[in-house]
Write a structure and sequence with these properties.
Layout lengths: L1 H19 L4 E12 L2 E11 L10 E5 L5 E5 L15 E2 L4 E11 L4 E9 L17 E9 L11 E2 L4 E5 L4 E3 L3 E2 L5 E7 L19 E4 L6 E4 L5 E14 L5 E16 L7 E2 L5 E4 L3 E9 L5 E8 L10 E3 L3 E2 L2 E8 L10 E9 L7 E11 L4 E8 L2 E7 L11 E9 L21 E5 L7 E4 L13 E8 L22 E9 L5 E8 L17 E9 L6 E8 L12 E7 L6 E9 L2 E5 L3 E2 L2 E7 L2 E7 L5 E10 L7 E6 L3 E5 L7 E10 L9 E4 L3 E3 L12 E6 L4 E6 L10 E9 L7 E6 L6 E5 L6 E9 L11 E3 L4 E3 L3 E3 L13 E3 L1 E9 L5 E5 L20 E13 L2 E14 L2
Parallel strand pairs: 10-17, 19-26, 57-62
Antiparallel strand pairs: 1-2, 2-6, 3-4, 3-7, 5-6, 7-8, 8-17, 9-12, 11-15, 13-16, 14-15, 16-17, 18-20, 20-24, 21-23, 21-25, 22-24, 25-26, 27-28, 28-31, 29-30, 29-32, 33-34, 34-37, 35-36, 35-38, 38-39, 38-40, 41-42, 42-45, 43-44, 43-46, 46-47, 46-48, 49-50, 50-53, 51-52, 51-54, 54-55, 56-58, ...
């Protein structure tokens, strides 16, 4: 009975040993798929040796979910057998088995989770992993369950297996054929193979080669060229990125793929796929691409394809290619649908493999397909008072679920120059001149009233519009048809001048001019709207405020409103020096309000002074387009303004000025309405503004050097004169000092001779301290401090070991042999029985041998001392302990 139990125990031990030493793991990865809520399907995929004993086989593996929990997962692929209820896996070659372990896990909520699996051993003989048979095989994936969207997040799907062959001396390539069903963006990077706990396998190295990299966008790994036969393990990380609600890309997860490449010898050359261009296709259209491949050896080729279009909801893409002798071709075909619309492009990877008798070689090419949403249809624009109403029809694609239309966005520009989008140009680029003016609320909201944010649109301006559909994932459709030119009804007066005539705080004046309404179609109907007619000029200070009437003119008949005498007004006795002025014209017929033209302000100029220059900036609110500005200047000795320059922006810097001198400026704007029937150009002056340039720019800091001499002791501070390099008006230096490194620097001296760049400090009791220096210009502007430079003492304190108390003047006192840079001490001297005979805090000591308490000369003999020495250092007072013996003699 005992022997039977013993043998069972031995068998169990051997079984445990072989399981622990299973030399089988070649490659693998972990993927995940969203099910619902926070529940995910987790799949571990491994590639292992097919062992004759079967001891290397894994019927189950342990998966760690990244939330502190784990589970033992049965193998789920292949037929049933000895592993039942687990499956047996699937042999993909005579020596390699594919194993899948699938489980489901519900996470506690949004967060970051690292999913991992660890198995005791890799297969033996891996060249770039020393002692690989005893190295742990580890794979992981990173899952982000985001808070800014639903919990849905699927990992990339990898369609090409991580088991490959390579030929010695030939370029090797591999592509995982990854695509993301959520439309997340993917990026690729090389990494190291992982071992125990996810750390790099001890001794792991990238394979030696002139080229070893991975394309960050396409995912193609290139190794040129393997030089040694055998097995190598390589690894890459495939990251997925998603935009959050702020439009910033956010890491949403990654997969670590550990792959194995077997390098052998061959005379083969890799096949070549001809370049494939990226493309865009309108949703609902059929896309067909012919792919060509050749082989320099004339081998039989097989071409396959994988990628996003093969994993979408129907209709899926198809790829057909008949294996044959080089050259061959394949046909990619995809009948796209509205459900395929998304912002991210679909990546397709084409693989071609030859059939060399020794080692098959491959080539990969990737291309991108963007499925573009069709545009909104039949856009029209109709003027309504000072607004324009836009109406359109839904696009042909208007799903109500999934990636659906969330809103329509409206774009406007103030001309009618036509623009047609390019094949891959969605939305409305800023370069077109169109500006977004607003968006609707939902899919069914297909009207928009453009009120110019409540400010009203401008008469005499040509407007044109586009509309774009915006989808849940941020995808934009093609732009709609562009509307023909549309103008507001010309039944109100239009301002053309707000021109500052004189500048003063109390007696300033502004010339205001307008043109009267037109008659006829899309204008004023004097039959329907009879007179008398009245213009009321309304005004407020600044750019915002409450309007008050400042002028009116009334005529019984429209023809009586003379274009010259009755459509202008000079507004006097106002503050034009510190205030802008804003006006609008209200139009009345028979006492009833008809409407008002757009408001217009004067140009208001502001000046900012600095060293030898003045910067001008100005602002205005006008319904026309100011496209040029003329700068007028009056210098210190000039009596009139002269034209200085012109610009198309609303800022200008006048340079080369004299500091302290008075300069005056005014700006004249030049503009026009887009309607060519309106008088042009429209010229309007700002107020006059004056300022003096003043130097507010400090000089640059000198460069300080500190030369310390502990023996002297002395310090020499020296620096450069910044006026010789980077400044031109420095007049003095300020010297700053701190006793220790931690204390703030304080001003200790000013040096008023700029050529005096050396400062000597000698006969010092301590050289410890920190220094900095600044330069100050004639306007009192001080530079930043130079770098803080610190010097330190070299303290010395040494005590003798013998004193003779005989009164001969030689060695009559116990005192230090060396005493430098010491603040104080704490010295205690003891006799042989441990009694204290003397103590002091004076570094000079000067003990004459008398016992402190009795004042009696101590007996001859050996005395012990302990001395705490406080050294003066730049870091502060540092304590040092001295212990020793002193021999006392009387003769």
């Amino acid at each position: 009975m005992f022997k039977k139990r013993y043998y069972i125990f031995i068998l169990i031990c051997f079984a445990s040993f072989f399981n622990a030493k299973a030399t089988h793991n070649r490659a693998g990865e972990i993927t995940y798929k969203w099910i619902s809520g926070y529940t995910y399907q987790i799949k571990v995929t491994t590639y292992t040796n097919i062992g004759s004993s079967g001891l290397a086989d894994r019927c189950e593996d342990t998966v760690h979910f990244g939330d502190g929990t784990s589970a033992v997962v049965l193998r789920s692929n292949g037929p049933s057998g000895g592993c039942s209820p687990a499956k047996e896996g699937v042999a993909i070659t005579s020596t390699i088995k594919l194993n899948e372990y699938v489980t489901y896990h519900t996470y506690p909520g949004p967060g970051n989770y690292k999913i991992s699996m660890e198995d005791p051993n890799r297969n033996s003989g891996v060249i770039n992993i020393p002692n690989s048979v005893n190295q742990v095989f580890y794979i992981e994936s990173f899952l982000v369950i985001p808070t800014f969207t639903s919990g849905k997040n699927d990992s990339p799907v990898l369609t090409f297996p991580p088991i490959d062959n390579a030929c010695q001396g030939k370029c090797f390539s591999h592509n995982p054929g990854a695509y993301d069903i959520d439309g997340d963006s993917l990026s690729y990077e090389l990494t190291y193979c992982r071992g125990n706990g996810g750390a790099m396998c001890p001794g792991y190295s990238y394979p030696a080669a002139a080229i070893y990299n991975v394309d960050a966008i396409t995912g193609t790994l290139t190794w040129c060229s393997p030089q040694m036969q055998g097995e190598y393990n390589l690894a890459m990380i495939i990251r997925e990125w998603r935009k959050n609600d702020d439009g910033d890309y956010f890491l949403i997860g990654y997969i670590l793929r550990d792959m194995q490449v077997t390098v052998g010898t061959c005379n083969n050359n890799e096949p070549v796929i001809q370049p494939i261009t990226d493309t865009c296709v309108l949703a609902g259209a059929q896309l067909t691409k012919i792919i060509h491949a050749t082989d320099p050896n004339g081998d039989v080729l097989t071409m396959t394809a994988n990628g996003g279009p093969f994993g979408v909801v129907n209709p899926k893409a198809t790829f057909s290619s008949t294996p044959g002798t080089s050259p061959i071709q394949g046909t990619f075909s995809w009948q796209t649908a509205c459900t395929h619309i998304r912002k991210a492009s679909y990546q397709v990877t084409i693989k071609v493999e030859d059939t060399d008798p020794q080692i098959n070689l491959v080539d990969f090419k990737t291309f991108n397909i963007t499925v573009v949403a069709p545009p909104p249809l039949n856009l029209t624009a109709t003027p309504l008072g000072t607004s324009i109403k836009l109406v359109w029809n839904k696009p042909t694609c208007h799903l109500t679920t999934g990636n659906k239309i969330e809103q329509y966005c409206v774009y406007r520009k103030m001309d009618c120059i036509p623009w047609v989008h390019a094949v891959c140009e969605t939305g409305v680029p800023a370069s077109t001149g169109f500006v977004k003016v607003g968006c609707t609320a939902n899919l069914s909201d297909t009207t928009f009233l453009d009120t110019n944010n409540g400010n009203g649109l401008s008469q005499a301006t040509n407007y044109s519009y586009l509309v774009v559909a915006v989808y849940t994932d941020g995808a934009e459709s093609y732009a709609s048809n562009q509307t023909p030119c549309v103008q507001l009804k010309r039944d109100v007066p239009i301002l053309v001048n707000v021109d500052v005539q004189t500048t003063n705080t109390a007696t300033g004046s502004v010339f205001v001019r307008w043109i009267k309404p037109l008659l006829g179609a899309n204008a004023l109907d004097t039959v329907a709207v009879p007179g008398p007619y009245e213009f009321r000029l309304m005004h407020h200070d600044g750019f915002t405020g409450t309007y008050a009437q400042v002028y009116s003119v009334t005529k019984p008949f429209f023809a009586g409103l003379n274009q010259l005498s009755d459509t202008s007004f000079t507004h006097n006795a106002i503050n034009t020096e510190t205030l802008a002025h804003t006006y609008k014209i209200e139009f009345y017929a028979n006492g009833q309000f008809v409407g008002a033209g757009q408001k217009a302000s004067s140009v208001f100029l502001s000046l900012a002074s600095s060293d030898n220059k003045i910067t001008l900036s100005w602002q205005h609110l006008v319904p026309w387009n100011n496209y040029k500005y003329y700068i007028y200047k009056k210098g210190p000795s000039a009596g009139v303004f002269t034209l200085r320059d012109s610009t198309t922006t609303k800022t200008y810097t006048d340079t080369g000025l004299v500091n302290g001198a008075l300069y005056c400026y005014k700006v004249q704007s030049k503009g026009e309405y887009s309607d060519p029937t309106i008088i042009r150009p429209l010229l309007n002056f700002s107020q006059e503004a004056c300022a003096k340039p003043i130097d507010k720019t400090p000089p640059c800091a000198p460069n300080l050097e500190v030369i310390a001499d502990c023996e002297a002791p002395s310090l020499v501070l020296q620096w450069n004169n910044p006026n010789h390099s980077c400044s031109d008006d420095a007049v003095k230096y300020n010297l700053y000092f701190a006793e220790t490194e931690d204390e703030p620097l304080a001003l200790i001296d000013s040096i008023k001779l700029m050529n005096d760049t050396i400062f000597v400090l000698d006969n010092l009791t301590s050289i410890a301290g920190c220094y900095a220096i600044t330069a100050v210009d004639s306007f009192g502007n001080e530079s930043i401090q130079s770098a803080k430079i610190c010097a330190d003492n070299c303290p010395e304190y040494e005590l003798p070991n013998v004193i003779t108390l005989n009164g001969d003047g030689v060695n009559d006192f116990f005192k230090p042999i060396k005493n430098r840079f010491i603040r104080d001490i704490d010295l205690k001297v003891y006799n042989r029985w441990g009694n204290l005979v003397f103590e002091t805090t004076d570094p000079a000591i000067m003990w004459d041998g008398k016992v402190a308490m009795s004042k009696v000369l101590c007996t001859e003999g050996t005395y012990f001392y302990v001395c705490l020495v406080n050294e003066i250092r730049v870091a502060g007072i540092k304590e040092r302990t001295l212990k020793g013996f002193v021999q006392v003699f009387h003769k």
